[in-house]
Amino acid sequence: QVQLVESGGGLVQAGGSLRLSCAASGRTVSSNPMGWFRQAPGKEREFVAAITWSGGPTYYAVSVKGRFTISRDNAKNTVYLQMNSLKPEDTAVYYCAAKFGLSGVTTANDYNFWGQGTQVTVSS
Length: 124
Prior knowledge:
By secondary structure, the protein is mainly beta.
């Protein structure tokens, strides 16, 4: 199985930055796609970003494109989400996810394993 642990969340003012990390252990391999999702209170879990392999294709939600960057370090089994120019509407619990297979990477149903989440709060 795969275990995922997110870290790096916290409180930040609008316009600030945070970097989230997702440490993976277990059955993951370097070519497995990894994604970030977020969920605000009362809202559906939404796609944020995904990456196929280190240096490979990346995908972003329109709402974060140009502000967030996803990357991965396979030697550390870690995926990162660099978040810049944060807005109050970015406030949510952020989850990392891993998948096995050849299907898409931009919906929650594409993923097999999930972390517990880390809270990101952006103040005005």
